UniProtKB/TrEMBL annotation, chain A:
<feature type="domain" description="Ubiquinol-cytochrome c chaperone">
    <location>
        <begin position="145"/>
        <end position="288"/>
    </location>
</feature>
<dbReference type="GO" id="GO:0005739">
    <property type="term" value="C:mitochondrion"/>
</dbReference>
<dbReference type="GO" id="GO:0034551">
    <property type="term" value="P:mitochondrial respiratory chain complex III assembly"/>
</dbReference>
<dbReference type="Pfam" id="PF03981">
    <property type="entry name" value="Ubiq_cyt_C_chap"/>
</dbReference>
<dbReference type="InterPro" id="IPR021150">
    <property type="entry name" value="Ubiq_cyt_c_chap"/>
</dbReference>
<protein>
    <submittedName>
        <fullName>Protein required for assembly of ubiquinol cytochrome-c reductase complex</fullName>
    </submittedName>
</protein>
<dbReference type="InterPro" id="IPR007129">
    <property type="entry name" value="Ubiqinol_cyt_c_chaperone_CPB3"/>
</dbReference>
<comment type="similarity">
    <text>Belongs to the CBP3 family.</text>
</comment>
UniProtKB/TrEMBL annotation, chain B:
<dbReference type="GO" id="GO:0043022">
    <property type="term" value="F:ribosome binding"/>
</dbReference>
<dbReference type="InterPro" id="IPR037653">
    <property type="entry name" value="Cbp6"/>
</dbReference>
<protein>
    <recommendedName>
        <fullName>Cytochrome B pre-mRNA-processing protein 6</fullName>
    </recommendedName>
</protein>
<dbReference type="GO" id="GO:0034551">
    <property type="term" value="P:mitochondrial respiratory chain complex III assembly"/>
</dbReference>
<dbReference type="GO" id="GO:0061671">
    <property type="term" value="C:Cbp3p-Cbp6 complex"/>
</dbReference>
<dbReference type="Pfam" id="PF20180">
    <property type="entry name" value="UQCC2_CBP6"/>
</dbReference>
């Protein structure tokens, strides 16, 4: 009798819940653990992070007496094409556009010279550049004052190599043919500049000596790139150890806060390089975020807005010299 | 936390760090273990700074920056050379050795 009554009051629904006499309760979609999850960590600028520590500085004995520049060479070159604010005459410009169109010149390859070999080279060079008795730039202050690194040509090279490597990581992500070309142009220019500066600024007259130095620096660069690559693919401590060996000179009395600041600086800049599109990067739109600024991860909406802005910017670049196959989506 | 407690924590953390996969001119792990277990480092460092040393090391060991600045396959599997990092890591870990012919191929083709 009881069973009959129950069946008669049940609505005629033959879904999965027809045996249940309780109201439907939805599964919890958000994990209970979510409320205990740590909030997004607050991030400080690398230079602020490094200067927070007041660990007594113990001078590292590197057994070197660094030679200082006696002269100052032009930052890029004496060529007027590389001077700031240079603009080609309109006749030369139209003639150039005609030649590019006529011979169907691959501008992505041609552009590597002016972008990687000049603009990005300058960006790498200026980070740790210093001259005796001249005020330091903000980035140089971070290395020589905050991190208290010695002012030497080799130290400048180590800082430059770190920045070269960050750009090389992004260049690998370009189409192979162009990425390789960009890397080649950048590294060639770094070594050409070093060759000239060793002779002009440091006054080394022996070509054999300069050649030996360059070979040694090249070997160092290969070692640095390998160590940084390993750090990129593994963890922060491996990257930190690579930075400690190659930028902080393997100082046994290192301030850990300095290692941390440099890891944060490198990872932050790599994040920006990860967000920039091939075309923007290929046209030289990337700038290193200086150590006194903080990189904050972008939201999906911000990423979309940046892509839209880039598309708008490149929509009007239709000249033969601005032709490109580099992607605006990745 | 006393100085000794902080020092013990630093040493414990340093011991958890992986050993170098390749032999370098110096090892971060060994050099720092030596610094914090022997000598007068702990007494020379002000307590506030010793704590900062620990925090910095802890953040690095927890991959704070790798997790905060997440990279995607765009950089980690670069389209110009997708196998680049895999080959490099397998060589470093000793899983796969470059042979003479694969080395020649890298030199000739660039990847």
């Amino acid at each position: 009798m009881m069973i009959r009554t129950r069946i008669s009051v049940r609505p005629q629904v033959f879904g999965l819940r027809w045996l249940s006499n309780q109201s439907k309760v939805n599964f919890q979609t958000q994990s209970i653990l979510q409320q205990f999850k740590d909030k997004e960590p607050e991030m400080d600028a690398p230079s602020k992070m490094a200067s927070e520590s007041t660990l007594p500085h113990i001078q590292q004995d590197l057994n070197i007496k660094p030679k200082q520049a006696k002269k100052k060479s032009a930052f890029l070159s004496d060529s007027k094409e590389e001077a700031e604010g240079f603009e080609m005459s309109s006749i030369k410009q139209s003639l150039g556009q005609m030649v590019i169109k006529l011979f169907k010149i691959d501008m992505d390859s041609a552009r590597a010279g002016s972008v990687a070999g000049s603009k990005y080279f300058g960006d790498c060079k200026k980070q740790g550049m210093y001259y005796p008795n001249e005020p330091l730039s903000d980035t140089a202050k971070f290395y020589y004052e905050t991190l208290q690194l010695p002012q030497s040509f080799s130290q400048w090279f180590q800082i430059t190599t770190l920045h070269y490597w960050m750009l090389a990581v992004r260049m690998r992500a370009m189409p192979f043919k162009y990425g390789k070309n960009y890397q080649q142009k950048l590294v060639d220019r770094i070594f050409r500049d070093m060759e000239l500066r060793l002779a002009e600024e440091l006054g080394i007259t022996s070509n054999r000596l300069i050649e030996n130095y360059l070979k040694e620096y090249h070997t160092q660069m290969l070692g640095c790139v390998l160590s940084f690559d390993e750090g990129l693919m593994t963890d922060d401590t491996t990257l930190g150890a690579a930075i400690w060996r190659n930028v902080l000179n393997g100082n046994p009395n290192v301030d850990m806060r300095h290692v941390e600041a440099l890891v944060s600086y490198v990872r932050g800049n790599l994040y920006v390089l990860n967000q920039i599109t091939d075309r923007e990067f290929g046209f030289g739109k990337f700038e290193f975020v200086p150590p006194h600024q903080v990189v904050k991860p972008l939201t999906a909406a911000q990423k979309e807005a940046l892509k839209e802005m880039a598309k708008k910017e490149f929509a009007n670049k239709n000249l033969p010299s601005q032709k490109t196959v580099l992607s605006l989506d990745e | 936390m006393s100085r000794v407690e902080i020092k013990d924590k630093i040493v414990a953390l340093l011991k958890t760090l992986p050993k170098d996969r390749i032999q370098h001119y110096t090892s971060f792990r060994e050099s720092q273990l030596d610094r914090f277990t022997t000598g007068t480092t702990v007494t020379d460092i002000p307590e506030k700074d010793l704590k900062l040393q620990y925090i910095a090391l802890r953040d690095l060991a927890n991959d704070k920056y790798k997790n905060y600045y997440k990279l995607d396959d765009k950089l980690l599997r670069p389209k110009g050379n997708p196998e680049y990092y895999e080959r490099l890591m397998s060589e470093i870990k000793g899983e796969k050795k470059e042979t003479f012919w694969t080395a020649i191929r890298t030199v000739v083709f660039g990847k």
